[in-house]
């Protein structure tokens, strides 16, 4: 945390540092200016911090790694609840607890309580029947995917925001939401294309367990990540590693919405901080820095919560498209039950109702919201340590 020193008393008619902060600063807009008279001068932001493009890459990777490790058990559970492998077990559980099929205003609290209890119960069941390691199944592939994915995403977004800002917001006096929207969309597309094979492997490893079928003599299908890649390419070709890519592109809407909301919330926090800095004789304390950190932590969580709820069905469809072949064809070979984005939407809605498109949302939110808060907070902290700005 950086403690801001008290501002000296200004001369009459001049503008204080705090009053300048009432307007969005370069750390919100991404604007940078050159220092010195030649084109090779060091590039720094207007608030004195150097613009280090590589810092976004490192900070994003570290943030993603921390979040993935701490929330892995909920990620495993979310993936299983989104898959159709476990729907029969869940329907039996719902019948035992008389969960209402049609959610009404009066049934919302009971349904919410049940889904929370169900999450805890299923996590305990995984631990009891499969052991502690099962709660972290696929974590290796997840981290291998998360680190480059978040590194690419934050790198493209952070630097894309700065570059786009030079064209769309040359005066640097406004927080242009279109800059954030375009930068976030570009980052989402680049990230999804580059890392989709890793997420396919991660999803299939999480769905692969000893008791996945009723055949007691059948063990796990995949020995490890490499075996999963080998079998996928052998039976489905290279295209098998890009299952769910269309749903990933659809998911760009979530990450874009999340980034835009996060930036708007940060702008509000910056303006509030600027007013406080403008107060005569103000000196920032550790409590103020802690409040600033908590504000950004809450902004990241709130932005993720809203974006995830609005766009959640694409998560289910993406998981279904990535799972291993589950239907035996006339030739005796396993084939894909879900073949395309639209077909998957229609089939899930037909077989399971619209509720099927929201399967696993409770553990998803329990994982995704704190995960986003941890990731974005780590990202901001690492950038501060590197002496640069977001």
TrEMBL record:
It is a multi-pass membrane protein. GO terms for cellular component: mitochondrial inner membrane. InterPro entries: MCP (IPR002067), MCP_dom_sf (IPR023395), MCP_transmembrane (IPR018108), SLC25A33/36-like (IPR049562). GO terms for biological process: pyrimidine nucleotide import into mitochondrion. Solcar repeats lie at residues 51-163, 175-268, 291-385. Coiled coil: none annotated. GO terms for molecular function: pyrimidine nucleotide transmembrane transporter activity. Residues 1-38 are annotated as: Disordered. Its main location: mitochondrion. Keywords: Membrane, Mitochondrion, Mitochondrion inner membrane, Repeat, Transmembrane, Transmembrane helix, Transport. Pfam families: Mito_carr. It is found in: Mitochondrion inner membrane. Belongs to the mitochondrial carrier (TC 2.A.29) family. This is Pyrimidine nucleotide transporter, mitochondrial. It comes from Cladophialophora chaetospira.
């Amino acid at each position: 945390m950086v403690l801001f020193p008290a501002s000296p008393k200004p001369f009459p008619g001049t503008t204080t540092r705090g009053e300048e902060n009432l307007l969005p600063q370069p750390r919100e807009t991404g604007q940078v200016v050159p220092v010195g008279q030649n084109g090779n001068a060091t590039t720094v932001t207007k608030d004195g911090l150097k613009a280090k493009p590589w810092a976004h890459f490192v900070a994003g990777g570290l943030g993603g790694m921390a979040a993935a490790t701490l929330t892995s058990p909920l990620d495993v559970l979310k993936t299983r609840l989104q898959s159709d492998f476990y729907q029969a077990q869940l329907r039996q559980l719902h019948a035992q607890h008389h969960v209402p099929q049609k959610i009404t205003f009066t049934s919302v609290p009971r349904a919410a309580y049940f889904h929370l209890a169900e999450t805890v119960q299923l996590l305990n069941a995984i631990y009891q029947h499969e052991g502690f390691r099962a709660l972290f199944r696929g974590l290796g592939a997840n981290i291998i995917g998360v680190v480059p994915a978040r590194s690419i995403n934050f790198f493209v977004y952070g630097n894309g925001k700065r570059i786009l800002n030079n064209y769309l917001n040359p005066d640097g006096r406004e927080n242009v939401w279109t800059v954030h929207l375009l930068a976030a969309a570009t980052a989402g597309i680049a990230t999804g294309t580059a890392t989709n094979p890793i997420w396919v492997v991660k999803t299939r490893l999480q769905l692969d367990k000893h008791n996945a079928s009723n055949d007691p003599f059948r063990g796990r299908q995949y020995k490890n990540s490499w075996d999963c890649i080998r079998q996928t390419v052998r039976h489905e070709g290279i295209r098998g590693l890009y299952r769910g890519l269309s749903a990933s592109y659809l998911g760009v809407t979530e990450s874009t919405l999340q980034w835009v909301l996060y930036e708007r919330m940060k702008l509000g926090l910056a303006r509030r901080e600027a007013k406080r800095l403008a107060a005569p004789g103000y000196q920032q304390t550790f409590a103020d820095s802690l409040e600033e950190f908590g504000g950004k932590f809450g902004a990241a969580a709130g932005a993720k919560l809203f974006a995830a709820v609005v766009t959640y069905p694409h998560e289910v469809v993406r998981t279904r498209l990535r799972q291993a072949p589950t239907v035996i064809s006339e030739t005796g070979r396993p084939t894909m039950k879900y073949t395309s984005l639209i077909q998957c939407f229609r089939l899930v809605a037909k077989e399971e109702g619209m509720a099927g498109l929201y399967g696993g949302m409770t553990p998803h939110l329990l994982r995704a919201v704190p995960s986003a808060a941890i990731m974005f907070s780590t990202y901001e902290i690492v950038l501060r340590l590197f002496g640069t700005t977001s």
